[in-house]
Amino acid sequence: MDQTTGFLGLGSMGLPIARNLARAGHRLRVYNRTAAKAEPLREFENVTIAHTPLEVAEPGGVVLSMLADDNAVTQASEGLAEVLGPDGLHISLSTIAPTTATALAAQGCGFLSAPVFGRPDRAESAELIVLSAGEQRHRERARPLLEAIGAAVHELGEDPASANGVKLAGNFLIMSALEAMSEAFAFAEKHGVPRELAAQVLTTTPVLGNAYRGYGAAISSGAYEPAGFALRLGHKDARLVAQAADRLGVPMPIIDLVANRFTAAENKGRGDLDWSALAIEVFESAGLDQADPR
Amino acid sequence: MDQTTGFLGLGSMGLPIARNLARAGHRLRVYNRTAAKAEPLREFENVTIAHTPLEVAEPGGVVLSMLADDNAVTQASEGLAEVLGPDGLHISLSTIAPTTATALAAQGCGFLSAPVFGRPDRAESAELIVLSAGEQRHRERARPLLEAIGAAVHELGEDPASANGVKLAGNFLIMSALEAMSEAFAFAEKHGVPRELAAQVLTTTPVLGNAYRGYGAAISSGAYEPAGFALRLGHKDARLVAQAADRLGVPMPIIDLVANRFTAAENKGRGDLDWSALAIEVFESAGLDQADPR
């Protein structure tokens, strides 16, 4: 902690993250384009406010960035790599394209991808879920910083782009859940159950948490037998949903998609496997083996 | 508990459910088409095995059924209603169409829809999530039985079909999660992260549980401001997923669907709302108001 750490980007996520780093005793030099957003950090003796982005960096030092998108990160890091040099480390917390991470890693300073899961309230309480991918020495150097802002740090290997791939996969799961919940609540409401009640029953019980943990493990390991719930029964339920949705006038694009997966899986003789075996169809369509090919 | 309760259907769900009722001290008369499946219940002194389905019923009594599909329930209940009579109660635990529940409720005996969430292991440990809908007196009469088999009993009102609507909505959410996880794991694996690791990071952390609880409440109450994560940023991430999926050859039908939702929402001026505001589009498409219309 004898070194000063740079921090770029004090938006709704960056500010609470920087605050937690300061609370943990890290000496920080922070910068934000809109200077007023740095004001709340003045209360910390160990934080100094910079007037230009490059000012937060020093040769061989560490800079974290939490910026809005790929362009912002790419622009900010142009001069950064030059100042940091080969012994420096840029830790990118932003959600950016895996290809952007690969490009940033080639800029001449050390680079670590460390995108995070969690909204501002989790950032505030230092309970983010942090992904970390890059060279092992970079991951080790970054760990005390990342542990100060998160409830867990998951290390995903040597290739920085991997962390961005998993972060996007996670955001995709959340988007899918938003769409699916919206469809499900509309469906329930057309059956006379107010959406608030449907939300309470369906999302505060362990039903879905159990489904992700249990089925996530089954799908990833290919454990589709013995069936806890046979795929042909899942198909039957998909038909019931589709029929009721049609009868009550609820457009539910996901049910059509899933029903077709079940049809394909049954045609391929998978009706007696667990309904999670619809995953085989998805992996095959991606050119992936059922068993992990690597 | 001085009355004998009938039980029809001793499959992978019915058997452990009947066993928990017997353990709780309820006197049971059980029937299964394949008689051998009743054998494990012989150890209970308070269980008798019937030779015909109608034998489990008595005038004014209670019969629970846990059968494979709508046809099986409809067939079984034909004679049942006649034997049970107007003071009797048929409690249907099966996942059937809401319209089938409505038809069964008109057969002349009391009828309660009580479909359950949980696989055989949860049935075994009496940790099912039980839905209950029908006349209040039926729900009250059924409660001791339902509490003996579940961790929670959610009462959903007077119309039996409501419980089946919510049960199908829940199964739909699980199917959607199966499809979304399969797509997400394929995506992560194409980024060099084995699906087992992706599953572990994405499904055993609180990320998704928090998303369902937090966003479920936001969507059902229409609380899209202030944005924890702006819809236009969600749209940006949807584009990043779609681009990476295309580049790496991962068909991801859900991302196309969700990206189009975000596009429509932005076109309607909702870019600064929380990304969960994609729900407005879904509710509108179902002819439902943003505020609960009832």
TrEMBL record, chains A, B:
Pfam families, A to Z: NAD_binding_11, NAD_binding_2
Keyword match Oxidoreductase: yes
GO molecular function, one term: 3-hydroxyisobutyrate dehydrogenase activity
Residues covered by the 3-hydroxyisobutyrate dehydrogenase-like NAD-binding domain: 163-278
Residue ranges annotated for the 6-phosphogluconate dehydrogenase NADP-binding domain, each copy included: 5-155
EC number: 1.1.1.31
Position of the signal peptide: none
Domain of life: Bacteria
Annotated InterPro entries: 6-PGluconate_DH-like_C_sf (IPR008927), 6PGD_dom2 (IPR013328), 6PGDH_NADP-bd (IPR006115), HIBADH-like_NADP-bd (IPR029154), HIBADH-related (IPR015815), HIBADH-related_NP60_sf (IPR051265), NAD(P)-bd_dom_sf (IPR036291)
Residues of the active site: K167
Membrane-crossing segments per the record: none
Membership in a protein family: Belongs to the HIBADH-related family.
The protein's name: 3-hydroxyisobutyrate dehydrogenase
Organism for this UniProt entry: Kutzneria albida DSM 43870
